[in-house]
Amino acid sequence: MLQPFYPHPGISGIRDWKWYPATVLQCAALFFLLADPWFGRYGFRLEPNLLVPAIAVLIVASLAWEGLLFGPVRGVNLLLQVIFLAPFTLYLCRITEKSPAARTGGSLVETLAGWTHSALDLTGIARLVPALLRDIFSNPALLVILLLLLTGMCFRKTAIRLGVVGLILGGFTFTALFSAEGSNRCFIPAVIALAGAAMLQWHPCRRLMETRNILDALGSVAGRARFRAAFRIALTACRRGSLREAGVLAILREEFPQLSPDALRAAASRLLADLVEHRRILIFRADRNGVRLEPAAELTEVDSPLAGIAVVPRLIFVTLFAILWIISPLDLIPDAIPFFGALDDATVAILAFGQIYGRYFRRQ
Question: Per the database record, which ranges form the DUF1232 domain (predicted)?
Fold first, then answer.
C-alpha cells in the first residue's frame, strides 16, 4: 500500500504564523549585511556586478521555482522567495567578491585590468560586449561558481542539486569568515538569519504537484475500484520513477481480488491502454530487463515561465560546452586514433543532446 500523503501549502498566507518570522529573518539578514563594513568603511558601497544577481536568480529559480522546494510558486510563497533574493544577492557578493573597502587599484593585475578597460573604452569595443560577459571574466571566483552551478543543476535529482549548492556556498562562506575587511559580528548573524528564513519556507511540494496533475489527467474514470487502481499505478510510477508488470498486477490484484489471473491481465491491458494512449499519463520504456512504465514529462515537470529561468541557462551552457569541446584541439582521446579518437566528442554530443531533449523537446 502507498503511504498516505497529507499536502500542505507551505506558508499559506500572511495569517500563517511562519510568515512573520520568515519576513523578520529576511529583513534582519539584509540589515546585518548592509551594516557589514566589508561593503565600505563609510557606509554601504558596492560596485554593480550583473553576474552576482544572475547567480542568485539561477539558484532560487532552480531550487524554488523549478524544484518546488519552498512551496507552490504563487501567493505569499512567491513573495517571500522574491524578497529572499535581496539579502541572498548581498550574501553572494560577500562570499565571492573583493571588498569595495579594500579596492585600492595598486596591484599589477588591477593596473593591467584598468589599462585594458581603458583601451576597450577608447576603441569602442567595450560597448559591443554585454556587461554580463565582462563581469564573468572579471572575477574568476564567480566564473568557477557559475560553471559548477550550471554543471550541478544539469542533474535531475534534487539531492544532487542541493549537494552542489551546499558545497559551493559552504566552502565560500567558510573562506569569507577570514576576510580582513569584514566583520563576523555582522556576517554570522546574517548567515544564520538567511538559513532560518529558508528553513521556515522549506516545503518540498513536488509530490503535491504530481498528485494534482494525475487527478486532473484522470478526470472521470468509471468505477471507484478502477479509478483507485489507475491513480495508484500512476502515483507509484511517479514515486519510484518506473513501474513494471509485476507491480501493476499487484495493485490490480488488491483492487480486484475476485478476478482470475487471465481476467486480471486483460483488465491490466485495458487500463494501461487508457493511461498511456488516451490520457497520456504514462509512457512505455523498453530495456534488456523488459518493458516498464514511466511517468509522462507533464506529470513531473513544472511548466511555468519562472521555472524556465533555471532551464534556459543550463541548455545554453550544455550547448556551448558541447560545441567548444568538439571544436577544441585538446581531447581526452587523440583524434589521430582511428574510431576511438572520436569517442569523446561523440559522447559529449550525445549527452548534450540528451539533456536538451529531456528538458525541452519532451515537454512539447
Answer: 318-350
